[in-house]
Amino acid sequence: MSGRKQFNVTDALDRAMRVFWECGYADTSLNALESATGLARSSLYSTFGGKDALFRQCLDRYAATYGARYEQALTTYPGEPVRAVEAYFDVVLARIADPAVPKGCLIAQSAAQSANLREEVSMRVRALLDTQRRRVRAALADSGTEPRILDELAGFVVAVQQSLAVLSCAGSSDAELRVVVRLACRTVADTLTRAEAGRPSA
């Protein structure tokens, strides 16, 4: 080889993702990204296309990593929508409690900073939240409840998920977060039960 420095693109992306996750988009400098990835600025631009493009790739990397876990949790209990939602929140709480990763959620943090993001990046954050809603909505669909209620419940579940990330950053304990989850799951169960009871008999 000619002596050019070799690097692992995926590893560099993971390191950059951690910086964005810890600092937020607005407070992440190119110097911090250079330091974390070990890449010169020219290499960052040639490999990832600049800060905005790198951030979009980090969002996608984050969504792929945790989205697969959410998908597995939500599809493990076909025909048991409440159990699926409980499993979904188990994954959320496990991520929050993991000492190996930064606090909170990169997507929730990015949504809160939408005013500082370019329009295409902000739209990407929105699209990732919509993907989460669709996953939850699909898990709830087995209940046979009318579509409007399922849409509302899916939005509620994702809203609680994002709130858990914010609360964890504010110092809420695992026990406090589990109370929120328990009440959220009860709300889902009660709403589905009421909808079932109100359905006309065949």
Query: Strand content of the residues, in percent?
Result: under 5%
* Percentage of residues in helical conformation: over 70%
Total of DSSP H or I helical runs spanning 4+ residues: 9
Radius of gyration: 20 Å
CATH superfamily of the domain at 56-196: Tetracycline Repressor, domain 2
Low-confidence runs: 1-5
User: What order do the helices and strands follow?
Assistant: HHHHHHHHH
Mean pLDDT: 91
Please summarize the sheet with the most strands. none
The CATH topology of the domain at 56-196, please?
Tetracycline Repressor, domain 2
Task: Record keyword descriptors for this entry.
74% helix; Tetracycline Repressor, domain 2; disordered N terminus; Tet_transcr_reg_TetR-rel_C_sf; 202 residues
Task: Write up what this structure looks like.
The chain is mostly helical and 202 residues long. The protein has a domain of 141 residues: Tetracycline Repressor, domain 2 (Orthogonal Bundle). It contains 9 helices and no strands. The N terminus is likely disordered.
